[in-house]
Amino acid sequence: MISASKGCTVTEGDIKNRVRCSETEGDVKNRVRCTVTEGDIKNRVRCSETEGDVKNRVRCTVTEGDVKNRVRCSETEGDVKNRVRCTVTEGDVKNRVRCSETEGDVKNRVRCSETEGDVKNQVRCTVTERVAKNRVRCSETEGDVKNRVRCTVTEGVAKNRVRCTVTEGDVKNRVRCTVTEGDVKNRVRCTVTEGDVKNRVRCTVTEGDVKNRVRCTVTEGVAKNRVRCTVTEGDVKNRVRCTVTEGNVKNRVRCTETEGVAKNRVRCTVTEGFTVTEGDVKNRVRCTVTEGDVKNRVRCTVTEGVAKNRVRCTVTEGDVKNRVRCTVTEGDVKNR
Known about the structure:
The chain has strands at about 25-30, 40, 55, 65, 80, 90-95, 105, 120, 130, 140-145, 155-160, 165-170, 185, 195, 210, 220-225, 230-235, 245-250, 260, 275-280, 290-295, 305, 320, 330-335. By secondary structure, the protein is mainly β.
């Protein structure tokens, strides 16, 4: 049965509500105010050439596929569940898309063009490929980006904010500069960081495992605490404020070229083996060239053998258990 309201022509199919225009084909349950509507249209269609399953209002032309909510522009293809205000949207778009040429799975707002991949949050720029879960404000972001990326060319996994360019690897926190390679979990404010960096790195060329702040360049090996100078190699757990530290340094080293195991503070230079000091140094050593096992303070130079207490002079050989205030003590000295 064909029933048409006054003022319109050529109505075919099952029309339950008013049709105010001409050439409407298919199943139209609500008002259709324009021409050439094909398919199953349940709600209002105010423009022409609408094809497919349109459940809500469509105010523009050439809508193909499954469109459940409002579409205000033209040439929308695929599954669009929410508002799409621009043109050429392909794929699965669940939230608002305000620009053109969006391909892939876009769940949240996309305000620019040419977004490819899985974008769950707002993407305000162009050329986003693969998985971007949070805001991406610049172009050419590749990989898994969960938080804000404000610059270009981010490759790999970036979970937090990346404000500069060319970040490769796993970046979980803020990266404000360029060319970060490897696993960077915290803030990296400079360039060329390679390896596993968990805390802040403010300078360039950090290689190895750096867990705390590194404010200078060329750190190699495992650095757990702050390293404020350059060329640190080995395992550095505490602060190293100078250059060229090699070996295992657990406490503060304020000078250069420390090699071996230094557990306490070493305030001078050229420690080989056990920090400007050779042997096992557990307490403070304020001078240079201490050999042997020194458990307490040694304030002078050239102590050989085992010194358990304070040695305030030079050239002590043998077993010294108590204080020796002068030079050249040989043998077993138990008292002063």
